[in-house]
Amino acid sequence: MIDSNPAGVTQVARLYTDIALLRRGPEDVPVSAVLLALTVLAYMLLSLLLSALMPAVEEDQIALIALDSFLSVAWYWVVLRLAGRPERFLQTATAVFGYQTIVAPAFVGATWLFLHYMKDATWQLPVSLLLLALAVWTLAVNGRILRSATGWPQVTCVALVVMEAIISRVIALGLFPGTGAP
Predict the structure, then answer these.
(1) pLDDT of amino acid 3
(2) How many Å apart are CA 109 and CA 112, to the nearest integer?
(3) Over the chain, what is the mean pLDDT?
(4) Are 112 and 150 in contact (CB under 8 A)?
(5) Neighbour-count burial of 63, counting CB atoms closer than 10 A to its CB (0-12 exposed, 13-18 middle, 19+ buried)
(6) How confident is the model at residue 53 (pLDDT cuts 50, 70, 90)?
(7) pLDDT at 182 over 60
(8) Is the CB of residue 153 less than 8 Å from the CB of residue 45?
(9) pLDDT at 165 over 90
(10) Nearest to 49 by CA among 101, 93, 5
């Protein structure tokens, strides 16, 4: 079991890193509503901090990050109910937010590089490929987490991850028109 002492926090970070590197899965995450809540909070706070470093921050950034987090939690709750595996919700949602917290700095760094070099012919392609590689990697990780939780084929799980991103974007744009939405 993971506790709240500094060694426990390190253990949790190592677990989320292993999930991001495809070495472990959601089945390795403790079943804990408190851990899920703390992981979602860490993800949201890190997202706010990192978005503040970006050149164009949306004025509704806090609301957009909260909405994105809520929709993600709701999505996994519904998917796991449909899969007949509601008992896997806490582990799955915690794994998703945990690995995303670990990957977020790399994604923000690559996005910053993309925005900074998008008109520079020398760096445009390498930075675009880096961002694409990160997107494919996170899609693979998220799909694997969902496959492990549902038992469904990887292709189905990846399609569900893409659907979640599209639906979240549409809802965010509907509620906050004119924003970049997360």
Answers:
(1) 56
(2) 5
(3) 92
(4) no
(5) middle
(6) confident
(7) no
(8) no
(9) yes
(10) 101
Q: Cα separation of 44 and 51, whole Å? A: 10
Residue 89 CA to residue 149 CA, distance in Å, equals 8
Instruction: Tell me how far apart the 2 most distant CA atoms of the chain are, in Å.
Output: 50
The token pair at 74 is 């709701």
DSSP-derived 3-state class of residue 21: coil
State how far the Cα of 91 lies from the Cα of 99, in Å rounded to an integer.
12
| Cβ neighbours of 98 (radius 10 Å) | 28
Confidence of residue 7 (pLDDT cuts 50, 70, 90): confident
Residue 55: CB atoms within 10 A of its CB come to 8
Q: What is the pLDDT of residues 71-81, one digit of tens each?
A: 999 999 999 99
The answer to whether 98 and 39 have CB atoms below 8 angstroms apart is: yes
Q: Are 84 and 149 in contact (CB under 8 A)?
A: no
Q: Is the pLDDT of residue 155 over 90?
A: yes
User: What pLDDT is recorded for position 78?
Assistant: 98
Name the H helices within 54-182.
61-82, 89-117, 121-150, 154-175
Name the residue among 24, 16, 78, 23 with its Cα closest to residue 43.
Answer: 16
Is the pLDDT reported for residue 44 higher than 80?
yes
Q: Is 31 helix (H, G, I), strand (E, B) or coil?
A: coil
| Residue 119 token pair | 């008109």
